[in-house]
Design a protein that fits this description.
EC number: 2.7.11.1
Structural class: alpha+beta
Number of strands: 45
Low-confidence stretches: 6-21, 500-561, 722-736, 857-882
Largest sheet: 11 strands, mixed
Organism: Ziziphus jujuba (Chinese jujube)
Bound molecules: 2-acetamido-2-deoxy-beta-D-glucopyranose
Mean pLDDT: 81
Number of helices: 15
Distance between the termini: 70 Å
Strand content: 25-35%
CATH superfamily of the largest domain: Transferase(Phosphotransferase) domain 1
Pfam family, one: PK_Tyr_Ser-Thr
Subcellular location: Membrane
CATH architecture of the largest domain: Orthogonal Bundle
InterPro entries: Kinase-like_dom_sf, Leu-rich_rpt, Leu-rich_rpt_4, LRR_dom_sf, Malectin-like_Carb-bd_dom, Prot_kinase_dom, Protein_kinase_ATP_BS, Ser-Thr/Tyr_kinase_cat_dom
CATH topology of the largest domain: Transferase(Phosphotransferase), domain 1
C-alpha cells in the first residue's frame, strides 16, 4: 500500500514547463517578492503572476540575493530574499479584506544567500499565534507553508521569529481570496499535502491553471495507472473548490482493476485534527453496459458512498468534521455491480491549526501604531503589540483576560527622545492605567484629554518642555487621590490655574518643591485606595450574584451550557446564509439549532470597541434578566474574536416595519397596537422596577421592539443598557448614547441617565403607534412627532392625529387616553413624566376601554374571535408574574 508523506519540502518553486492558458483575473491576489527592491514589480514569466516589492509592508530586514548558480529553473520570486539579522521578531503587516477566506502562503528558499552555506531554522508566527517552525533539507529546496484562514481584522501580521538557530529570511508571501463556502471547517487550516493524483507529466501546477493559485504536486504510484482526457473539466457554479481543470483531467486508478485503491499516511502528531478534500471527475465516456461506483472508507469505516462521479464534472467529497487517528488508511472500494474500478483525480489534506490567541483590541493597535509613527519611535515595535506575551512591545504592558483581545494598560516612553506635542492618539488607549512620558523633549500644553482617561492612575510628565497651565481637572483628580501625577522639571509649566504669564524660574522653584510634596501624598492616597477598592468591587459583584440566583438558581450552570462554539455558530447559520438585519455592532443572521429551534444570531464585529463593551454588557445583563416581554437569550459564543449572541427568533420582525408598511393590507389594529404597547411597557417596567439594581435600556425605539408570530411584543437590544447602583443617587453619568428622535432632551443636556429617559423614548414609540408617523420627519416644520401631535391637538379633532389607516376603527376615549399618556411621557422635564408602573396601568385602561367596545360588537361574531378575546382577557391583562 502506498504511504503518502508530507510533500511540502519538495523543490517545487521549480516550474517544469509553460503551457498557454488564457489569462485569468488576479484580482484580490497579494503577491510579495520579499527582498525585491522598493517600488519594483514584474510579471513572473512562468506564471504571469504580478509580484511587487515587500518594502511597503515591513520596516526592517535587508534585501539579499541567492547565489546565481541556484537561480536556474527557479521562478523569479525565489531570486531575492529578505533577511532579518536584527531583532527577535520581525513582522509584515498586510492589508486584507476582513471576513474573506484567504489562502495564505509563505515560501522560503535559502540558496546560500548569505554565503555561509548553513541552513537556518526559525519560527513563523501568524499575528499572535505560532504557525510553524521553518526548516530546510537542502540549499536549493524550498519550504512552503500554506494556511486557509479568515482574517477578522482588515490586516494580518506575519512574523519571523529568531529562535537562536540562524537568521530568519523569507522569499515570498502570497495571499489569495477563496470562496467563502470552500474548505468549511471549525477553524483555520494548515496544508498537509495537496496532490494531483494520476498526473502524467512531472509538473506541478498553480496559477494560471488553478484560479486560486493552489500548488498541485504530481503524484503517481507503481500500483496505479492513469486515465486522462483532453477535455476541459467543468467545476461549475455548484463546486466552490474549483480545482484546476488540468489537475482534474488526469485520474489515478488501480492497475489491478479488482483491487481496492488504497493509500495511507501516519500523522506526525496523533493529536492532529485532519480535514480531507477529495476531488473526482469521470473521464471515461461510459458505454451502455459500463458503470463506475465505489465507496470511500477511512480506517475500515464508510466515509462516503456509493459515489459515481459525473462525466467531466468535478465532485468534491470532504470531511465536515475533523478526523483524528494514529494512522489514516483510505480505501476506495468498487461496488459489486460496477464494471469499472475507483478513480481519484485530486486529494487535499489539511490540519486544524490553533489560532485562538486573539489579537490586541483594534483601537489599541490603531492608537499605538499612530503614536509610533507620530514620534518615530525607535524601538522594535512590530507585529501585534501585546501578543504573544513573550514578544510584547518594549515599554508596553497589557492585560489578558481569557480569550478576550489583549488591551494595552501601560505605556512607558520615558527617555525615548520624543519631541513635539503630547500625541492625541493616547486618548484612544482607553484602558491605559500608567503613562510615563518623562525625560523627553515634549512641548506645548498638557492636553485636556489626559484628565478624561477613565482608567489612568499614574501619569509622569516630568522633565519635558511642556508649557502653559495644567488642566484644572487633572489637578482635581490628583488632589482627590485618583491619579498619581508627576509634572516637575517643566520650567515653563504653570502649576496653578490662576497664573497666565510666564514667571521667572526663581519664583517657580518653591512651587516645584511643593509639587514634589503633593506627589508623595497622592501616591500614599492611591496606595490606600488600592487596598480599599477591590473589596468594594467584590461586594458589588456578590450583590449582583445573589440577585440573579434568587430568581434563577441555575443561571450560572445554565449559562455555561448555553455557550456555543464558533463552528456551531457557522453550522446553525449555514455559514451566515441569511441576513436578518444590521445591528449597532454587527450583522444579525438567521439560524436553526440542532433541535430545529429558529434563532437570531447577532455577530459582534470585532473592530468596534464600543461594540465589544456592549457585547460584554449585554451578555451579563441578558443572563440575569428573564421576562416574557424581553427577548430571550438562547446562548452565546465567545471564541477569540468570534463573539455572538444567540436570541430566540421572533418571526414577525420589528414594530417599526409594521408601522411603516404603507400597504393597506396588514394594518395593525388599534387593539393590536395597544397590546404591543402594553407588552413593551411591561418589559420596561420589569427593567426599571423588577431588577435590582434597576436597568435603564437607553435605546427604546420601534426597531427594538420585536414581535412573535402571534404579535406578542418583546424588547430587544440591551447593548446600551447600564446597571446603576441603588445606593447613592438615582442617576449615573455616562456618555450620551441613543437614537435621534427618541433621545431624552434632558439627558442629552445633563448627561445624567435616569429611568425617565426610557419613559421619554417609550412616549415617542407610543405616539408612533397612535399616528403611524416616524419619530422625526426631516424638513417638516414640526420635525419631531411630539411637536406635530401637540400642534394638531391644539387646533383640531383627535381623529386627525390617529393613523388614517385605522379608518376610524377604534374607541375614541381609548385613543384620547393613550395620547395623554404618551404626551406625559415626552414631557421635556423628567419630573413631569410618569414612571413605568403608572404607564402600564394607564395602557391597561386604554386596552380595557377598546376591548369593551369590541366585546359588544363581538357577541354575534364567530367562536374563534371570542376565544381570542378570552385569551386576551386572562393572559394579557393579568398582573405581572413577578
Ligand atoms: C509597476 O511598476 C511600474 C513602473 O515601473 C508602475 O507604473 C506600476 O504602477 C507598478 N505596478 C504596481 C502594481 O506596483
Ligand atoms: C493599509 O491600510 C492602512 C489603513 O487603511 C493604510 O494607512 C496603509 O497605508 C495601508 N498599507 C498599505 C501597504 O497599503
Ligand atoms: C464572503 O464573505 C464576506 C464577508 O462576510 C462577504 O463580504 C463576501 O461578499 C462573501 N462572498 C461571497 C461570494 O459570498
Ligand atoms: C519524470 O521524472 C522522472 C524522474 O525524475 C523521469 O524518469 C521521467 O522520465 C519523467 N517523466 C516525464 C514525463 O518527464
Ligand atoms: C490528447 O491530445 C493529444 C495531442 O493533441 C493526443 O495525442 C492524445 O491522444 C489526446 N488524448 C486523449 C485522451 O484524447
Ligand atoms: C460492453 O459491451 C462491449 C460491446 O459493445 C463489449 O465489447 C464489452 O466487453 C462489454 N463490457 C462489459 C463489461 O460487459
Ligand atoms: C499504518 O497502516 C498501514 C495499513 O493500514 C500499515 O501498512 C502501516 O504499517 C501502518 N503504520 C503505522 C505506523 O502504524
Ligand atoms: C449498485 O448497488 C448499489 C448498492 O450496493 C445500489 O445502490 C445501486 O443502485 C446499484 N447500481 C446499479 C446501477 O444497479
Ligand atoms: C510592566 O509590568 C512589569 C511586571 O509586572 C513591571 O515590572 C513593569 O514596570 C511594568 N511596566 C510599566 C511600563 O508599567
Ligand atoms: C519607565 O521606564 C524607565 C526606564 O526606561 C523606568 O525608570 C521607569 O520606572 C518606568 N516607568 C514606570 C512607570 O514603570
Amino acid at each position: 500500500m502506498e504511504m503518502l508523506k508530507n510533500f511540502l519540502c519538495i523543490s517545487f518553486l521549480v516550474f517544469g514547463f509553460l503551457l498557454l492558458v488564457h489569462a485569468q483575473d488576479q484580482s484580490g491576489f497579494i503577491s510579495l517578492d520579499c527582498g525585491l527592491p522598493r517600488n519594483s514589480n514584474y510579471s513572473e514569466p512562468g506564471t504571469k503572476i504580478n509580484y511587487i516589492s515587500d518594502a511597503d509592508f515591513i520596516d526592517t530586514g535587508s534585501s539579499e540575493s541567492i547565489k546565481p548558480e541556484y537561480k536556474a529553473n527557479l521562478q523569479q520570486q525565489a531570486a531575492y530574499v529578505r533577511s532579518f539579522p536584527e531583532g527577535i521578531r520581525n513582522c509584515y503587516t498586510i492589508n486584507v479584506t476582513s471576513g474573506t477566506k484567504y489562502l495564505i502562503r509563505s515560501s522560503f528558499l535559502y540558496g546560500d544567500y548569505d554565503g555561509l552555506n548553513k541552513l537556518p531554522q526559525f519560527d513563523l508566527h501568524f499575528g499572535p499565534n505560532y504557525w510553524e517552525t521553518i526548516k530546510f533539507d537542502e540549499v536549493t529546496s524550498s519550504t512552503i507553508k500554506e494556511i486557509v484562514h479568515v482574517p477578522l481584522m482588515d490586516y494580518v501580521h506575519i512574523c519571523l521569529v529568531n529562535t537562536g538557530k540562524g537568521t530568519p529570511f523569507i522569499s515570498a508571501l502570497e495571499l489569495r481570496p477563496l470562496t467563502n463556502s470552500s474548505y468549511a471547517s471549525s477553524g483555520s487550516l494548515a496544508l498537509y499535502f495537496r496532490l494531483d493524483t494520476g498526473s502524467v507529466s512531472n509538473s506541478s501546477y498553480r496559477y494560471p491553471y488553478d484560479i486560486f493559485d493552489r500548488l498541485w504536486l504530481p503524484y503517481s504510484y507503481s500500483k496505479w495507472t492513469q486515465i486522462t482526457t483532453n477535455a476541459t473539466i467543468d467545476s461549475g457554479s455548484h463546486n466552490s473548490y474549483q480545482p484546476a481543470s488540468i489537475v482534474m483531467n488526469t485520474a489515478a486508478t488501480p492497475i489491478d482493476a479488482t483491487a481496492p485503491m488504497e493509500f495511507y499516511w501516519v500523522p506526525s502528531d496523533p493529536s492532529l485534527e485532519f480535514f480531507v478534500y477529495m476531488h473526482f471527475a469521470e473521464l471515461h465516456k461510459m458505454k451502455a453496459n459500463e458503470s463506475r461506483a465505489f465507496n470511500i472508507n477511512c480506517n475500515g469505516k464508510l466515509l462516503y458512498g456509493p459515489l459515481s462521479p459525473d462525466y467531466l464534472y468535478t465532485t468534491t467529497i470532504f470531511t465536515p468534521t475533523s478526523l483524528t487517528a494514529e494512522n489514516f488508511t483510505f480505501s476506495l472500494v468498487q461496488l459489486d455491480n460496477s464494471t469499472l474500478p475507483p478513480i481519484l483525480n485530486g486529494l487535499e489534506v489539511y490540519t486544524l491549526i490553533d489560532f485562538s490567541q486573539s489579537e490586541t483590541e483594534k483601537d489599541d493597535v490603531d492608537a499605538i501604531t499612530n503614536i509610533k509613527s507620530t514620534y518615530g519611535v525607535n524601538k522594535n515595535w512590530q507585529g501585534d503589540p501585546c501578543a504573544p506575551v513573550s514578544y510584547v512591545w518594549a515599554g508596553l504592558n497589557c492585560s489578558y483576560r481569557g480569550l478576550d483581545p489583549p488591551r494595552i494598560i501601560s505605556l512607558n516612553l520615558s527617555s525615548s527622545g520624543l519631541t513635539g506635542d503630547i500625541a492625541p492618539y493616547i486618548s484612544s488607549l482607553t484602558m491605559l492605567q500608567t503613562l510615563d512620558l518623562s525625560n523627553n523633549n515634549l512641548s506645548g500644553s498638557i492636553p485636556e484629554f489626559l484628565s478624561q482617561m477613565p482608567n489612568l492612575k499614574f501619569l509622569n510628565l516630568e522633565n519635558n518642555k511642556l508649557n502653559s497651565s495644567v488642566p484644572a481637572k487633572l489637578i482635581e483628580k490628583s488632589n482627590a487621590g485618583s491619579l498619581s501625577l508627576g509634572m516637575g522639571g517643566n520650567p515653563d509649566l504653570c502649576q496653578s490655574s490662576s497664573c497666565k504669564k510666564k514667571k521667572s524660574n526663581n519664583v517657580l522653584v518653591p512651587v516645584l518643591a511643593s509639587v514634589g510634596g503633593v506627589v508623595v501624598v497622592v501616591v500614599l492616597l492611591v496606595a490606600g485606595a488600592i487596598l480599599f477598592i477591590p473589596k468594594r468591587k467584590r461586594n458589588q459583584v456578590e450583590a449582583g450574584k445573589i440577585n440573579a440566583e434568587s430568581g434563577h438558581p441555575n443561571d450560572s450552570f445554565e449559562s455555561r451550557k448555553r455557550q456555543y462554539t464558533y463552528s456551531e455558530v457557522l453550522k446553525m447559520t449555514s455559514n451566515f446564509e441569511r441576513v436578518l438585519g444590521k445591528g449597532g455592532f454587527g450583522m444579525v443572521y438567521h439560524g436553526v439549532l440542532t433541535d430545529g429551534t429558529e434563532v437570531a444570531v447577532k455577530m459582534l464585529s470585532p473592530s468596534s470597541v464600543q461594540g465589544y463593551q456592549q457585547f460584554q454588557a449585554e451578555v451579563k445583563l441578558l443572563l440575569r434578566v428573564h421576562h416574557r416581554n424581553l427577548t430571550n437569550l438562547v446562548g452565546y459564543c465567545n471564541e477569540g474574536t468570534n463573539m455572538a449572541l444567540i436570541y430566540e427568533y421572533l418571526s414577525n420582525g420589528d414594530l417599526h416595519s409594521h408601522l411603516s408598511d404603507n400597504s393597506e393590507v396588514n394594518v395593525l389594529s388599534w387593539e393590536g397596537r395597544l397590546k404591543i404597547a402594553l407588552d413593551s411597557a411591561q418589559g420596561l417596567e420589569y427593567l426599571h422596577h423588577g431588577c435590582k439594581p434597576p436597568i435603564v435600556h437607553r435605546d427604546v425605539k420601534t426597531t427594538n421592539i420585536l414581535l412573535t408570530d402571534n404579535f406578542q411584543a418583546k424588547i430587544a437590544d440591551f447593548g446600551l443598557s447600564r446597571c446603576f447602583p441603588t445606593d447613592g443617587g438615582t442617576h449615573v453619568s455616562t456618555v450620551v448614547a441613543g437614537t435621534p428622535g427618541y433621545l431624552d432632551p434632558e439627558y442629552s443636556i445633563t448627561n445624567r441617565l435616569h429611568e425617565k429617559s426610557d419613559v421619554y423614548s417609550f412616549g415617542v414609540v407610543l405616539l408612533e403607534m397612535i399616528t403611524g408617523r416616524p419619530a422625526i420627519v426631516r424638513g417638516h416644520e414640526k420635525p419631531h412627532i411630539s411637536q406635530w401631535v401637540s400642534s394638531i391637538l391644539s387646533n383640531g379633532d383627535i381623529r386627525n392625529v390617529v393613523d388614517q389607516r385605522l379608518r376610524g376603527d377604534y374607541e375614541v376615549n381609548s385613543v384620547w387616553k393613550a395620547v395623554e399618556v404618551a404626551m406625559a411621557c415626552v414631557s421635556p422635564t423628567s419630573a413631569k413624566r410618569p414612571n413605568m408602573n403608572q404607564v402600564v396601568t394607564e395602557i391597561q385602561d386604554c386596552l380595557a376601554t377598546e376591548l369593551s367596545r369590541k366585546n359588544e360588537s363581538l357577541v354575534t361574531d364567530s367562536a374563534t374571535s371570542i376565544e381570542t378575546f378570552s385569551i386576551t382577557g386572562t393572559t394579557e391583562l393579568s398582573p405581572l408574574a413577578r
